């Protein structure tokens, strides 16, 4: 028999929220909300208004940014892509980049963890439950500092198993904008979990490699060309671009012959000497099996080894790409 739910008053809400606490909340460190005008560190208070168009229409953009050892990595590249994503959606920046950087740093400080995954969301904002974007008077900022997962190869040193996705790729306009409407990406991740593989990768209608659920893909041909896809049907990854920059000295050193963008087919993946998965949380990951067939020797290869080390060093010591978080002020 249906039990009529109670109408909860504002006075009763704190107790209700406390009762709703879950084990997975331990991974959430801090959240800034421009709606509240401040930061909360209790996960049950990390909420977004239901009438924010981000919630009921996916009308917003986001970036996932890494903070390691109290240093935010490659933030300028993420903010450039954020601006690129906001422009075609006509979402106005809520504040200057300088202020946004301070808010990100303040949120990480409040979370108290120098190793954090930062989720930066810019929403259309509250205003109605309708589809009309003009109902929202102004955009909003939400910043979440959460647990940073270990790089894939740290927990899977033998490498990754990958299969071809059956989920259709996004049209070019949407593929190149990092919106909060991520349903195709969700379905791709579900595919990987259901198939018991590590990643799936999609191909466009012309049969060319696109991307994974949240990762980019590159191949090393047997004649030592490092190739990555054209940008028509992919989100250009900040990690992918940085890794390609780091790879160019490997040409002079002889490990690679060339680094270039090109169309990549399924056959190119199957016959590659190495296949690499690239992303903010996975770093550089070696693919050892694709659609049930071994890649190269079936183990992580020399280009993976070189690029993985170069990226790790870059994240630790490249002062041009590191923004220090003054975490000592959070205790004062």
Please tell me about this protein's structure.
This protein has 332 residues and is α+β, with helices and mostly antiparallel strands. 30% of the residues lie in helices and 25% in strands. It contains 10 helices and 16 strands. It has helices at 13-19, 53-57, 75-89, 97-111, 152-155, 172-175, 183-195, 238-252, 266-271, 302-317, and strands at 28-33, 38-40, 60-68, 71-73, 116-123, 140-147, 160-164, 199-203, 209-212, 216-220, 225-228, 258-261, 274-279, 283-290, 293-294, 322-324. Strands 7, 8, 9, 10, 11, 12, 13, 14 and 15 form a 9-stranded mixed β-sheet that branches. A 7-stranded antiparallel β-sheet has the order 2-1-6-5-3-4-16, with helices on both faces. Strand 8 (199-203) and strand 9 form a beta hairpin. Helix 8 (238-252) packs across helix 10 (302-317). The longest helix has 16 residues, at 302-317.
How is this structure best summarized?
The chain is an alpha+beta fold and 332 residues long.
């Amino acid at each position: 028999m249906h039990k009529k739910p109670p109408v909860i008053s504002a006075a009763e809400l704190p107790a209700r929220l406390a009762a709703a606490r879950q084990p997975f909340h331990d991974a959430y460190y801090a959240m800034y909300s421009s709606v509240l005008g401040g930061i909360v560190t209790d996960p049950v208070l990390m909420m977004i208004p239901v009438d924010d168009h981000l919630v009921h229409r996916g009308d917003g953009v986001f970036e996932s940014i890494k903070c390691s050892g109290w240093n935010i990595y490659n933030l300028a590249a993420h903010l450039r892509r954020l601006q690129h994503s906001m422009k075609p959606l006509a979402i106005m920046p809520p504040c200057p980049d300088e202020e946004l950087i301070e808010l990100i740093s303040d949120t990480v400080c409040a979370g108290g963890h120098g190793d954090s995954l930062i989720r930066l969301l810019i929403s259309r904002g509250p205003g109605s439950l309708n589809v009309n974007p003009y109902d929202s008077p102004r955009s909003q900022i939400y910043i979440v500092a959460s647990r940073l997962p270990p790089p894939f190869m740290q927990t899977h040193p033998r490498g990754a198993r990958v299969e071809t996705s059956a989920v259709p790729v996004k049209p070019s306009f949407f593929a190149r904008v990092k919106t909060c409407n991520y349903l195709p990406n969700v379905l791709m991740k579900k595919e990987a979990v259901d198939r018991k593989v590590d990643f799936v990768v999609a191909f466009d209608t012309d049969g060319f490699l696109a991307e994974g659920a949240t990762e980019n893909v590159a191949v090393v041909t047997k004649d030592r060309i490092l190739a990555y896809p054209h940008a028509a049907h992919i989100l250009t990854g900040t990690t992918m671009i940085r890794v390609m920059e780091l790879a160019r000295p490997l040409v002079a050193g002889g490990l690679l012959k060339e680094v270039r963008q090109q169309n990549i087919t399924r056959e190119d993946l199957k016959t590659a000497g190495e296949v690499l998965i690239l992303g903010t949380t996975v770093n550089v990951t070696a693919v050892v099996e694709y659609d049930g067939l071994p890649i190269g020797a079936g183990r992580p290869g020399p280009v993976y080894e070189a690029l993985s080390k170069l990226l790790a060093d870059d994240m630790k010591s490249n002062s041009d790409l590191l923004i220090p978080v003054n975490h000592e002020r959070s205790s004062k």
